[in-house]
Amino acid sequence: MTAPVLVVGEALVDIVGTAGRSPGKNGTKATPGGSPANVAVGLARLGVPTELVTRFGTDPYGDQLGAHLFGNGVQLAPGSVDPGFRTSTATATLDSDGVASYQFDISWEPPALTLNRGCPAVHTGSIATVLEPGAEAIRKFLGTLADQPVTVTLDPNARPTITPDPVATWSAVQALAALSDLVKLSDEDCAFLRPGSSPEEIAAELLAAERTQCVVITRGGDGATGVTRTAHVEVNAPAIEVVDTVGAGDSFMSALIAGLSARGLLGPARLRGLDEKALCEVVDYAVKAAAITCTRHGADPPTSAEHAGRWS
Question: Which CATH number fits domain 5-111+118-305: 3.40.50.300, 3.40.1190.20, 3.40.50.2000, 3.40.640.10?
């Protein structure tokens, strides 16, 4: 692979603390985050060239983000660093089990979106796909990719504090999913967006779109489900001691893309050849990447060497 995977979406700083403690006290700390930015870092650590289209400022939080992204080998698209922009933040509160909930202080308007020649995949998701005016820019951009030799992946990563109406949000997710080859959801996304529906029913709804070829639903400590029109796999998660879950879903997403890349299923292939064996392998690889992240503080995805060393 020569051209980088293109990731589009927010980069922000997570202010992480435990329930009952105020930011800045009792060990609460600020760490680089934002779901798409986390995916970009995860891809780069797994050896996949990656370019991120985002927007953050040159304030102290922005400097922290820039150092983190550059330090992990993520290319930044022109216009992503804007001196006039205030870097966004998310306050992440951890419960007694290490599970995070979020409150956001964010605005989103990306720089110009263009597809570089040879780009094998475009990934987007999270707040960037629902918060205007940037969400409209993403919808229009994905609409231009229908005839391009590129694989599109989507992780809606629903945030009820940003989009509290599940019916309207599900409609928006369906519209974006119809422009995507692969859609990844969490069980929490499913419970919010389609309460009462099983993972199989949700996958069937999304696979009804002509372009969508694969739906993957993560189930936390229970692993993940992968579904195509011809295959269905259930992958268990390894037993681990959870430190926190911050960034675990993003590590899963980046490893899923990396696994597909390693099998030549991105680019013009658009997942053709993703049979049951390959689906099981890439979902297992992603589950194990997420598991490593859960054993560490914050959004800290594994490198390819760490992944191989832990699970080989």
Answer: 3.40.1190.20
